[in-house]
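note to self — DONT lose this again. spent like an hour looking for the file last time. sequence + predicted structure for the chain T wanted, 455 res
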Amino acid sequence: MSPPAVPTFAEAFRVWAKIGLLSFGGPAGQIALMHKVLVEDRRWIGEQRFLHALNYCMLLPGPEAQQLATYIGWLLHRTAGGLVAGLLFVLPGAVVMLALSALYALYRHVPLVEALFFGVKAAVLAIVVQAVLRIGRRALRNRLMVGIAAAAFLGLYFLRLPFPLIILLAGLAGWIGNRYAPSWFAPAGMGANGGVADPPGVVDMLFERGELAHAAPSRSRALRVAALWLPLWLAPVALLWALTGSSSVWTQIGSFFSVMAVVTFGGAYAVLAYVAQAAVDGFGWMAPGEMVDGLGLAETTPGPLIMVVQFVGFLAAFRNPGTLDPLLAGTLGALLTLWVTFAPCFFWIFLGAPYVEALRGNRALSASLSAITAAVVGVILNLALWFSLHVIFRQVESVAFLGLQPDLPVPGSIDWRAALLAVGALVAMLWFRLGLFATLAGCALAGIALRLLPA
């Protein structure tokens, strides 16, 4: 087998653009696509180094697939390569999501559009339930992990503990647990090609020849990265706070999503309940059902699912435009949300990638990640319950007793049409293995038909 050629920057640009346009299906589909293109087809990176990079990205907050693209692009063509790979992974979906957010804000109450989203909500509920089952099968390998997931769910649903605190406690449990019962927290094996020799990729050969000097850990380089990227990330938020005050929608968007960018372990599904709670109950930017609509839109676009936050930022500014035109304000809100969500992703990669080898061999960090992943199952289960209550019931009340604060539905407010659609979507996806787009399309059409019937 002839060795693969080192790609030019222009060739890499075209490949990253293709990946960005085709990156549907959530992180699993996106990682599978990159594996096929970069490992199998073009051999730009070897199997083991690809998995090595993926493990590192899973340790980070934020969308692991986008960060994996940034990491590999950085290995190949330094900072410019990382920027191109990461940006092209995000931009196609961001453009589509911005257009869909504007259409939603303007035409949400048109009867046909309203009926379409009525059906999409049921499909989204099925998608989230499927995510609980998929991640649960991988993460809950023993009774201790099941217990961590249950504790996370109970803490969120009954005690209303903050999402960042749940993640912090889970990581701490894994860190401490590794000292006393490391086998309970050992991460699942990733496999190693079934014993077949791993053919070297371009990156592997460049490492062997000593041509990747930029990948060597350096304290001075780390300080330069921090000095550049921390101001790039946070300076716009500080400037907006100084110009518009702490209570303006711009400061709220910038500060809230900057915090979210630091705690988004476990992917978009895990953080959505946290975002929804803040956007609906904390800031009053949107209604509960609209968060489900946003997730439905995000499921139909390429790129990371966390792009749903762009929808939230758009509606927040669209509905609080101040002296600006609402569409302009919404667009600026969406762009600000994107910036403070994804600028940290580049910072994590450019700062930490040279230390990836040390992080990968750190068992305590791996144990923390295992515990966090288990907690994420409970977090997503809470999200599924939150969605189901607001999709199937017209009224949900927060009930306080014995220090607990669960949300409970009003029994007489059940919407039989929504319940029927939700059951149908679950059967389609879990029993008949119907794909994402087919389920979304079928539920949208069914929603239009059912809206013609009396409630």
